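Q: What changes when magnesium ion is included in the input?
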Amino acid sequence: MSLRFPSFSSIRDSSLFVLTLAGVGWLVLRGGEQLGYNWHWRQIPRYLFTYTDGQFIPGPLLQGLMVTLEITAVSLVFAACIGLVTALLRLSNSTVGRWLARVYLEVIRNTPLLVQIFFLYFVMAPIFDIGRTATAILALSLFEGAYASEIFRAGIQSIHRGQWEASHSLGLSRYQAYRWIILPQAVRRILPPLTSQAVSLIKDSALVSTIAVYDLTMAGRVIIAETFLTFELWFTVAAIYLLLTLTLSALANALERRFPRIT
Amino acid sequence: MEKNIHAATDQDEPIIIAEHLVKIFPGSVPALNDFSVQVKRGEVLVVVGPSGSGKSTFLRCLNGLEMIDSGRIVIDSIPLDANEKNRLAIRREVGMVFQSFNLFPHLSVLENVNLAQCLVRSKSKKEATRATEELLAKVGLSDKIGGYPDELSGGQQQRVAIARALALRPKVMLFDEATSALDPEMIGEVLDVMRTLAEEGMTMVVVTHEMGFAREVSDRVVFMEAGRIVEAAATRQFFLHPAQERTRDFLRQIL
Ligand SMILES: Nc1ncnc2c1ncn2[C@@H]1O[C@H](COP(=O)(O)OP(=O)(O)OP(=O)(O)O)[C@@H](O)[C@H]1O
Ligand SMILES: [Mg+2]
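A: The predicted holo structure follows.
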């Protein structure tokens, strides 16, 4: 249903939303004042970027953001691949395959991400001589891949059995059925939950700052250590994450609308 | 050409041989219980029986959608066994039409009918499209070639499904209650297509409740119950002089 004018309830909801935000902002500012905190918002922009002599120079926050983007983008691709393979293994006829997938899922989902990052960084990285960024990507891919695999599995299983039967009755192999019939339909159902998972990935990526990967969070911490602009920087960092995740959701929404034939 | 070779060698050999089929779903009575039947080339066999008697299971075993627990199935001299190659080969020779159509909703009508031709018969898209146009004309849906399944009525969807199955040039067609999910006014258009197929000499195994169609089109009728054959007879005989009391009961109910 598309409305030309925003409905009454949507106007009311948005005003409520803005009011709440303003209220929270006011509370924080007042709280800061009572703590005797001196706000120095003017100093923040130069940590984002500087613009001198017509030259754009990214500041540490933007550089950190680039690292965060790079790590999450690469991890997202790997996580999707791991997730798909694991899901197919779990749905396969191979006992060994199913068993492998189960062990992987149980281990990943029942240990904290932070511990996994430390384990990979302090134990596996020295043994296999993996770099810091690569370790971060590996940890995030393995972690999110486990959750992605559940999303893929549910998506694949949600396709009606009749689609498999029609494919088989036409002589398609299992691979052909997946490739042409099952996955193209499953993708449309998988996209929304996979987007939430990608949003989680962006947020979880902040944990890689613990192994001194210079991502957005790490950049924030470093600047705070130098300048003591604690409040302003965490506000800024949080706002950037928010912007990132909201953009991603909007993109996913637009993408979904390009698949009109959802069944 | 291929047909002629067959004609010379094994014209009289049944194209479908099913012997002593047993299929037991876990925790249930046997769906097929020592079920044997043979179908000659060009024959139209109608399978009838009460709900749960194993009609669908029989059809699904014939193209390997279900594995039989024991017994033997040979179709066009290919044994249906654990060998994956044979199973795929048989599925290429056997087309199946389902009660619920099972068209691919994300593909257009053209793509639905083209897909297996390209993937399984390795035809070029152009060749496949030409065959598809012919088949759609045959089922009376030339104007729907660019449409999508959800834009079609049930009867139209089922006719596309028949065209899709025919696109592989199967030697046998299986119909599992192809008209049961249709509104009454659409049943005729699907039965007409099936009747045409039968007249063209297609070997068909048809599970149906349409006794008019069975009487008119089929050569032989098998009445089954609880996975067994109660009575199998030439169509005329089956309807006019059923031998079994149980068959007479059944016919009285259904006619
Ligand atoms: N996948 C399955 N799992 C378990 N039991 C099954 C399965 N498919 C069929 N059965 C059982 O096998 C028996 C035969 O079922 P089948 O579907 O072949 O009957 P049918 O003659 O086609 O019935 P209908 O006229 O209702 O379609 C039934 O008792 C049914 O419950
Ligand atoms: Mg049935």
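Observations recorded in class: The longest helix of chain A spans residues 60-90.
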